[in-house]
Amino acid sequence: MTKRDGVRDPRHPDTEILHSGRDPEAQHGFVNPSVYRGSTVLFPTLDALEAYDQQTYRYGRHGTPTTAALEEALCQLEGGARCVLTPSGYQAVTTAILAFVKAGDHILMVDTVYQPTRKFCDAFLARLGVATTYYDPLIGEGIAGLVQENTRLVFTESPGSLTFEMQDIGAIAKAARARDIAVVMDNTWATGLYFRPLEHGVDVSINACTKYIVGHADAMLGAITANARTARAIEMSRLLLGGCPGSEETYLGLRGLRTLAVRLARHHKAGLEVAEWLAGRPEVARVLHPALASDPGHALWKAQYKGASGLFSIVLNPVPRAAVAAMLDGLELFGMGYSWGGYESLIVPFDPKTCRTATTWGDAGQALRLHIGLDDPRDLISDLDAGFTRLKSAA
């Protein structure tokens, strides 16, 4: 590290995530920050108590040195002005949306969004008098044609949940900014290491830290990183909604962040290896992975992203459900369970037709979402190969 005129040269993100958000000198030389467990914070004087906001830490729900450390590190990673933590990725989504809307407003929501986000819009926002229009993820600058007088927010998620369509984030953000509409992006798939939404015109980047930031399937955690123009709105939304992560979960997020670069590189490489093998299987109709050259969104991914994660989907050629069950039930290395981003490999079936309204899904075969963990990809391929043998026997 060198300095010129007191300004530090930029560091590579792989290095930055190792050093941001920690101060060994303030921790008696220990490398990692302490885990602060607490609710009550004592004030030294009546004047300090009555001033309240003039003390850095005031109450456990508002943050501790542990949460501040992770917020600082994630803010650096995403290139934001402010980051706040929430107890889950889903609460990060809901807190961010509620920061910008009130009764009578309208939002534009990508049709391929994470299903709980869709449910929040349809069941909760609708009850509050906020209308939602779902749009095709491939709309690009055409999003301008859907803007209404009361549109306050455009929500993006790229690649799309489950089906991995790539959005032209820059074009969408430019169209929204021209009308002074906030743009929020769920950036969990890539994290700030492989894509920095704020550099492409997005106002707020969301991470379900439960996934790759924590990285070990042992904690629930969310983060919202905002640019300067939206930071205050995000801070107030989190404050008013009362979201605060637990001390242990926050520390696990800090621990996981330090190894994010090496884990994501492994997920990227192994995921592509398995995806390429699956693309050659006769049982597979399509592989949905934007880092594959054959994927419709590959050009956008290559232009915008620095890497890919280990999460993608496939569509099987039509077979009876019993054949799919025979394949999945006998897998040894792939577990069947929700969430992803940990060291373990996962596989779950899903039906895209049940979670989209602005677009249609025409494939007849069963769709499967895979998360390629840190297993040796050769072992995963062997496990899947045996699964396809069972599938064919039961078809």
From TrEMBL:
One MF annotation (Gene Ontology) recorded for this entry: cysteine-S-conjugate beta-lyase activity
InterPro entries, sorted: Cys/Met-Metab_PyrdxlP-dep_enz, Cys_b_lyase_bac, PyrdxlP-dep_Trfase, PyrdxlP-dep_Trfase_major, PyrdxlP-dep_Trfase_small
Biased composition (Basic and acidic residues): 1-26
Keyword Lyase found: yes
Residue list for modification N6-(pyridoxal phosphate)lysine: K211
Record flagged with keyword Transmembrane helix: no
Reaction(s) the record says it catalyses: L,L-cystathionine + H2O = L-homocysteine + pyruvate + NH4(+)
Family: Belongs to the trans-sulfuration enzymes family.
Protein name: Cystathionine beta-lyase
Native source species: Hyphomicrobium nitrativorans NL23
